[in-house]
Specification:
Largest sheet: 8 strands, mixed
Number of helices: 16
CATH superfamily of the largest domain: FAD/NAD(P)-binding domain
Radius of gyration: 22 Å
Shape: globular
Strand content: 15-25%
Mean pLDDT: 94
Low-confidence stretches: none
Helix content: 25-40%
CATH class of the largest domain: Alpha Beta
Bound molecules: flavin-adenine dinucleotide
Number of domains: 3
CATH topology of the largest domain: FAD/NAD(P)-binding domain
């Protein structure tokens, strides 16, 4: 049956929820389509023995007063429900035996000075690296929503150099490069490929105010549902976009066929899924050779093996960024020569109200381009001995690493759950990588207009990775499609 014309948002992670609310708050009808039974994507938490753990959203920058996360939440009407608590970051560089503790709320300049004192021979070079990070952040207009400078193609010279080229031109030592580049784990693109501008935006945000979202991504999902109910967003879960009608004379596709048999009459269609998932539903007429080539050139960002523990002993809350080697490219592309594990210590009440100490560890592992030895079928993997023994080995190694970082935890960790990139594939097809496609210097991103006139791409592959990045991509694409008047009107009303 044909219904009233609507704006379709495909995918309900942080990117999709943001776009759906922006459209609804500007008075547009919205249908949000999610293939999983629940909305939220990597914002979703899960419970083991009543204890909450996070799938993808563990920490973020931008939560300080007036910061970009706070601003975006305000425009979306979610700021009363979503907040973050500052946390420290302890960087452990095993190869050089160095440890750098960046206390909670040390700020970007504080972090710079601490790194300088850890590497006295590199101090001036590190100071310059941090200055560049700051310059890139400050000259990116969308990092402050009050700055209404129109979006133009960005010709920053830092778009044209990789992070590695900048580190080399500064003459940073390998250990200092690992230290300043440690947040590459939060975008998953090797330093030899990532544009400095992209790497610096993630680095600045996390150096400036690393914070743990209170109640994880659940807080945003709950607040979204409340606002969606008020503004009449039509949420369809367990449903996929199957195909579209052929383009009209104006190049637009208006009839969207869903897996539940519904046909929607679509005004605009916004994709916040992986570009490969978009490609699957593009009508044949839109699959131009040049677009196909663009898609084929994409490479995946890193993948993680995640292990979730409870601990008998309390450790200081916060992040430990462990690096077995200094070469970040090896860590992100090889996985056999070196790896990195992000270990998050947290205290949170379980469903019975008991305060629990939890440890979530996500270890980089190569996934893209590997022969895939395990079944993509979740049930088959449950009984696959080889898969179960691979998981057991990864868990043992992770546990040993945590005990190396905090010897007091020896024998006091209890595994509650674990997940591999194959698990991610179950919940976030089609690639299972942590941050979608890599951002590669000199390669155009899949963001904005698609080869059907009313189709647009946002999502985590678009601009900057992570939850903040995918939300910023939604703001940017909304602005591009709805125009300056609608965008500025919305900001004036809500910011
Ligand atoms: C282990 C791990 C740790 C991470 N840690 C952090 C962190 O600490 N901080 C941070 O900011 N980021 C982190 N990230 C990355 C972060 O989770 C993502 O960048 C972000 O959540 C992406 O949001 P999104 O909305 O773009 O995509 P997603 O959250 O992936 O949402 C996409 C949604 O689209 C749905 N979908 C896919 N295909 C279709 C289809 N054909 N039809 C309908 N629906 C579809 C999916 O089911 C999913 O719900 C981590 C990721 C991983 C895997």
């Amino acid at each position: 049956m044909l219904r009233e014309r609507t704006n379709i948002v495909c995918g309900s992670g942080a990117g999709g929820l943001t776009l759906a609310l922006l459209l609804a708050r500007s008075g547009r009808p919205v249908t949000l389509i999610e293939s999983q039974p629940e909305i939220g994507g990597y914002l979703r938490r899960f419970y083991r023995n009543g204890i909450p753990f996070d799938t993808g959203y563990h920490f973020s920058g931008g939560f300080s007063p007036g910061g970009i996360m706070e601003q975006m939440m305000q425009v979306l009407g979610l700021s009363d429900a979503v907040s973050g608590t500052p946390i420290p970051n302890r960087i452990v560089l095993a190869e050089s035996g160095k440890e750098i503790l960046l206390p909670a709320e040390c700020g970007h300049s504080g972090a710079a000075e601490i790194c300088c004192s850890a590497f006295p021979d590199d101090a001036e070079k590190i100071r310059e690296f941090f200055r560049i990070e700051q310059e890139i952040w400050d000259t990116t207009p969308m990092h402050d929503l009050h700055d209404l400078t129109p979006l133009t193609p960005d010709f920053s010279r830092y778009d044209l150099s990789t992070a590695e080229e900048i580190c080399q031109s500064l003459g940073l030592s390998p250990a200092a490069t690992a230290c300043t580049g440690s947040f590459a784990m939060c975008h998953g693109t090797p330093l030899s490929e990532a544009p400095m501008s992209f790497h610096a935006r993630v680095g600045y945000a996390l150096h400036a105010d690393l914070a743990r979202p209170t109640d994880g991504g659940d807080a945003m999902i709950r607040a979204f549902k409340r606002e969606a109910a008020k503004s009449g967003i039509d949420i369809r879960t367990g449903t996929e976009l199957l195909k579209f009608s052929a383009p009209d004379a104006d190049g637009a596709c208006h009839k969207a066929h869903l897996s539940d048999g519904t046909i929607l009459d679509a005004e605009q269609v916004f994709f916040t899924t992986h570009p490969f998932a978009i490609q699957n539903v593009l009508p044949d007429e839109a699959r131009t050779p040049s677009h196909e080539r663009r898609i084929r050139r994409l490479k995946e960002s890193c993948s993680f093996f995640c292990t979730y523990f409870t601990a008998d002993e309390a450790m200081p809350d916060g992040l430990v960024s462990y690096f077995s080697g200094n070469d970040i490219d090896h860590i992100l592309t090889d996985g056999t020569r070196a790896h990195s594990t992000g270990i998050l210590f947290n205290r949170e009440r379980d469903r019975a109200g008991v305060l629990r100490h939890t440890v979530s560890a996500f270890r980089t592992m190569r996934f893209e381009g590997m022969p895939q030895p395990f079944s993509p079928d979740h049930r088959q993997r449950l009984t696959d001995e080889a898969y179960q023994s691979f998981k057991a080995q990864m868990i043992r190694e992770t546990e040993a690493e945590i005990e190396r970082v905090y010897p007091a935890l020896k024998g006091k960790l209890h595994v509650q759950a674990s997940g591999s990139p194959w698990t991610c594939l179950d919940y976030d097809p089609p690639t299972g990588s942590a941050y979608g496609a890599r951002c590669i210097c000199g390669q155009a991103r899949i963001c904005g207009q698609l080869p059907v006139t009313n189709f647009f791409a946002a999502g985590q592959s678009a601009l900057v990775p992570g939850v903040m990045g995918t939300m910023l991509a939604s703001f940017s694409v909304f602005r591009q499609v709805l125009g300056e008047d609608v965008y500025t009107g919305l900001l004036r009303r809500f910011l």
